[in-house]
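Lab notebook page, bench 4
Experiment: in silico fold of construct C2
Operator: M.H.
Input chain length: 143 residues
Purpose: comparison with the prior construct
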Amino acid sequence: MTKQAKKANGAALSNISSLMKGLAIPGFDLEAVTDIQRRNWEAFIEANRAASEGYQSLFNRQIEIAQTAMQDASGVFQKAIEGGANGSVPADQLEVTRVGLEQAIGNIRELAEIVQEANSAPVRIVQDRISEGMDELHKLAKR
């Protein structure tokens, strides 16, 4: 979380806390509840950041794959032109097709792994915070 975001969150929570102090309820720890909520928001912000970074990584890799594919296609066309003069076009086309399919399958696997991580990282952050929050609420209830 950026310093500016932390400062804004802190200011908002401070304003809410000062408003709520006048409404004090016996046996209710407003500061503890406010602290729990602050950590909840921080976890959601962190989860969003993780998702954003994960999908940015996915998009960047897709661009790299597309650029490589365009370069490879250019090379294939150049070889086809040169091979046509030598009479070896069918054998070359078969090899190029095989290599292209292997690369495509590898790229699909890699992109699937990136998507899986982009989806699972934010979920782990939220699950961890939910677990921590439940523990905090249990401790708070025992007071």
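Observations: The longest helix spans residues 30-86. The chain has one domain: 3-142.
Next step: discuss at group meeting.
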